[in-house]
Amino acid sequence: MIEITLNNKNISVDVEPDMPLLYVLRDELKLKGTKFGCGVGQCGACTVHLNGQAIRSCITPISAVNKQKITTIEGLSTDGDHKVQKAWREHKVPQCGYCQSGQMMSAASLLANNASPSDEEVVEHMQGNICRCGTYKRIKKAIHAAADMES
Amino acid sequence: MSVNILILAAGASNRFKGCKQLATIQGKTMLEHTITRLSSLNKKIYVALGANKDSIMPHLNTSITTIACANWQLGMGHTIAQACEKINLEKSAILIALADQVLIPTSHYLALLQAQITYPNKIIVTTAGDKVMAPAIFPTQYVEQLKGLTGDKGAQKIIKNNLAQCHFVPCQKAQYDIDTQEDYQYLSNKIKNEMEPV
Ligand code: FES
Ligand code: FES
């Protein structure tokens, strides 16, 4: 049995210890907000938080996060009102949307550690999240806007 | 402080008698195994190459940035120094990992990252028994010292000179690396049961 605190709830799951966290979230727990992109740690679509840090869940075995705190897009805020989510709406960031839950999770972990990141810091932090639709410009704008919001 | 990742894979693996970085375990090269584990962290990954550079490159996917270290023959110290010159570390820390510590699980790399967040100004060092070793995370204020490394001496020297500034994270599995064909055979067998398939 593996126990994790998922979106502030303690849960336990009975799965193989090497099952990727992403599969546990999507297939076992039916939390579909976190996306499967490449499955090999190259695109960032599967980004979630481990104790507040952005990690890629597709290549993280569930056993590696045993007894720890995982947050998915579903748990980022109660009403979709995290400042990143608000800024994303305001700046109409998504195009097809597929990469965006990962983008927002990465952005939220950046702002949690760095309240007003420079352009360069945004680019560096977000480099692991690929967007096929090329929404990068709006992502950058929205992150700066979120940084400027009263939280 | 953000973190960049540097995997050292520049050595000639003389004692291995062959290209160590490309020796496969369960169908994947050692370097690929290390990259996969570290990719969990969602940070930028650099791989320092020297010997066998041209044969290793085609095995790396496009999300990896390679650094060609012309001075690799002079030893690991030179490789680290050269690689650190090429990465922008003005404001970021650097996690230095080796390509041949194949038993280290993803959870250890995640634990190092966690420790770095908790102790941003400390050097985060792996220990096995009473030995300090890679992987380790150096905050930006140690980058100058990394750039000053020479010869065969790796970053161990900096760790030993700054023990009071280190935070230690144990990982028994870090002590196994692959130097010789015997190590390779031994670990390939051991791994069948121990390594987390990814
Ligand atoms: S799905 Fe995890 S990085 Fe692409
Ligand atoms: S919005 Fe389509 S992949 Fe990013």
TrEMBL record, chain A:
Keywords: 2Fe-2S, Iron, Iron-sulfur, Metal-binding, Oxidoreductase, Ubiquinone. Residues 1-76 form the 2Fe-2S ferredoxin-type domain. Pfam families: Fer2, Fer2_2. GO terms for molecular function: 2 iron, 2 sulfur cluster binding; metal ion binding; oxidoreductase activity. Signal peptide: none annotated. PROSITE patterns: 2FE2S_FER_1, 2FE2S_FER_2. This is (2Fe-2S)-binding protein.
Automatic annotation (TrEMBL), chain B:
The keyword Magnesium applies. Keywords: Magnesium, Transferase. Pfam families: NTP_transf_3 (PF12804). Residues 6-162 form the MobA-like NTP transferase domain. This is Nucleotidyltransferase family protein. The keyword NADP does not apply. GO terms for molecular function: nucleotidyltransferase activity. InterPro entries: MobA-like_NTP_Trfase, Nucleotide-diphossugar_trans.
